[in-house]
Structure formats: C-alpha cells, structure tokens
Amino acid sequence: MAASQEDREELLLSCRYGELQNVQDFVARHGAPALVDARDDHGNTVLHMTCANGHVDVLEYLFSLVPTPLLAQQNHAGSTPLHWAALNRHLQIAQKLIQHPGGPGVDLIDIKNAAGRSPLGEAEMAEWDEGARWFVQVMNIDEVKQEESDGQIDSSQSVGIEIQDVEGQIAPLTINNATQALSTSLMESHENQESR
Fold this sequence. Notes:
Layout: H1 5-17, H2 20-30, H3 33-37, H4 46-52, H5 56-63, H6 81-87, H7 91-99, H8 119-125, H9 129-138, H10 141-150, E1 158-164, E2 170-176, H11 184-194
Antiparallel strand pairs: 1-2
C-alpha cells in the first residue's frame, strides 16, 4: 500500500523523536522504497531527522534500507544529514555517516550548503571542537599536502590562491617569489569589505 502524506509525516516525526518501532512499522506497511520519498516542506529526509537528533539505533536500521546517495541528499537549504549532525554535535552519528561502507565517505565533509558552509564549517559555527577536530583528522589533509608538494614551484613563479574568511568572503591571494605573503588584491578586498 502506498504511503499517504500523513504516513510520511508520521514517519519523519518518528525519525525525529527516535521511535524505532514506528519506523519499522512504516517499513512493514509500505516497504523500504517509501523511506526515500519521505520529505518535509524543507526537503528534509528520514536521515536528516534521524541525524539531527542523534538517534544511532534508527540510523543503523535505516542504513540497511536506504540507498547510499541519500547520505549526501541536500535539503532545500543545501544541508546534508551530516550538516545537521555537526550543527547538533552528534559525533557518533557523524562518524557513522562518514564511515558507512559504500557511502560517500569523507567527501561528505566537502559538501557546502546554501550558506556556503560545509559540515566542518557548521561544527566550527556551533563551537563543537571535538567534531571539528575529528573531521580534520579524517579529511586526509596530509595526502593532499603531499600531492601538492610533489610539484616543485620555481621561485620565479607566482602562485595564485583564494582564501575564504569566516563570513564566507573570498579574497584572491598571490604569492610571488614564494616569499611574499599578501598581495594588493587581498588588501583591496579587505578594504572594500570594511567600507561597506
């Protein structure tokens, strides 16, 4: 039997409040594929509701039933279930999302929402140091640094990069002769922001 809108709303509430038996009853009545279609008015899925509220038992049950792309599903604000886990400081949930076999893994940490924040950014905004440290530990930053250092830069070359500040503003930075730290464009960008 197809799930009605009311059934889907009840399912989302059950995920929000951690009512595992109600979630299991929904699956028994409507089948696992109906879990994927359940969304609230903001585009939140069963995983958003479960992860936002830290219900490990419900998450583990859902893992066996939903397709792995749902782990990276963004709601209307662009937030994934991991964004919500980070915002609400649920380390065990964040770990399970990232470590789920066959899932997106650490790539989940790179997804930005409409506000321009990644789950790591949400953890920092929530002043959740434990979670932010864990995200950084699993992001394979050392591997990226190694890949970047494999290409030698001639000291006569200029290197252009972009820096994003806490408010999401991006400023270009040029490093000349591998020693100059700030470029005119960075200083101008900062001056423009101050004059606003």
